[in-house]
Design goal:
Elements lengths: L2 H25 L18 E6 L8 H16 L2 E6 L4 H11 L4 E4 L5 H8 L6 E4 L9 E6 L2 H14 L4 E6 L4 H17 L4 E6 L6 H13 L4 E5 L4 H11 L2 E6 L10 E7 L2 H12 L7 E4 L6 E5 L9 H16 L10
Helix pairs in contact: 2-9, 5-6, 5-10, 7-8
Length: 340
């Protein structure tokens, strides 16, 4: 064979070796995603949480994040969280679904409708909001019966108030918050029919200054016990109460240890069991779109007095709260709630 022929043969051998190497790399799963027969990813179970505010708010978003962490710890899930409000919600949900997240939890009423709409485009992703009334095959809501805790808070507040005036400070005026406020007022008036309840909304869930201004306004009208649904802005409520020497009531998470020293009790959501149960159903392919009401009977709702301020609560009031709680658990007392 000529020298030129030998060179050509060598080039052909190098090309063939390169092609074989590329083929072997294509067969390897190292560093890539393996795909099952249905076209899905075998990476693992991925769960996302969308919140209206920061997860360090010691309240609404914080207790949801605790539930997300429990899903990671108990089910071995890969988790992700981000804040999403308004027009950000659909984009965030769509992004998570496109990235293969099996469960997307939107923590609030405002996440229900977008989740149900997107569910049609992403049948392999379950969209669940922690409030709301719309469902589809792979979308729904679990509603915490927080009204039960607010009813007890109202009963206590009416007994503790010297002025006979209470206040409720809200952030966004959404149905879920309005419903808890109605329950608070119902509990207060069942205890003390003459009590007056002031309701103020700031329209924001993270504006501490606005929440403080609204609380000061309510106090100027005579309120001496204040409850809130202000999410991350709750600190403004507590600061105003501290400055004016009135009592506050926490909500969603146990806020009794707030540094203001004015929180006499908290209407609490215990989210972990509900979050884990939901995620397990999704992971095992058992989820069906529905609306679930989760209350005291499931250990998801409670009203907790602050041990440091317990001396401010007369023994008769404590006994009344215990009795009301028993009636709620037995079904004798059905706490009012809005349907939405």
């Amino acid at each position: 064979m000529s020298r030129e022929g030998i060179r050509k043969l060598g080039r052909m051998r190098r090309i063939l070796l390169a092609l074989v190497a590329v083929g072997l790399m294509g067969c390897s799963s190292g560093g890539g995603k393996s795909i099952d027969s249905k076209g899905g990813s075998n990476e693992g179970f991925k769960v996302a949480l969308l919140t209206p505010g920061p997860v360090n708010d010691s309240g609404w978003s914080a207790m949801a994040y605790e539930g997300l962490v429990a899903i990671r710890d108990e089910l071995g899930a890969e988790i992700s969280n981000q804040e999403a409000r308004g027009t950000q919600i659909r984009d965030a949900m769509r992004s998570y679904a496109q990235r293969g997240f099996r469960l997307v939890i939107g923590h609030g009423f405002e996440y229900n409708e977008p989740g149900v709409e997107l569910a049609m485009d992403f049948p392999d992703t379950v969209f669940v909001s922690s409030s709301g009334g719309k469902t589809s095959a792979n979308a729904g809501a679990f509603r915490f019966y927080l009204e039960q805790g607010f009813y007890l808070a109202g009963a206590m507040a009416a007994d503790l108030s010297k002025s006979g005036v209470l206040a409720m400070i809200g952030g966004p005026k959404v149905p879920s918050i309005e419903s808890t406020f109605k329950a608070f007022e119902a509990g207060a008036k069942a205890t003390r029919p003459s009590v007056r309840v002031i309701t103020l909304f700031t329209g924001q869930d993270s504006d501490v200054a606005a929440a403080k201004r609204a609380t000061l306004e309510a106090i100027s009208q005579g309120a001496d016990v204040v409850i809130h649904q202000a999410n991350a802005a709750a600190q403004g409520v507590f600061e105003a109460c501290r400055e004016k020497g009135v009592l506050a009531i926490g909500s969603n998470a146990n806020q009794n240890d707030n540094e203001s020293g004015v929180v006499v009790g908290s209407a609490v959501i215990v989210a972990k069991p509900a979050f884990v149960e939901l995620a397990r159903e999704v992971k095992e392919g058992r989820y069906q779109g529905s609306i679930r009401l989760i209350g005291m009977e499931k250990g998801a709702i409670d009203f907790v007095l602050n041990p440091k301020l317990e001396s401010r609560v007369p023994e008769a009031v404590k006994q009344k709260l215990a009795g009301l709680k028993e009636k709620i658990l037995s079904g004798e007392l059905i706490v009012p709630k809005d349907e939405f």
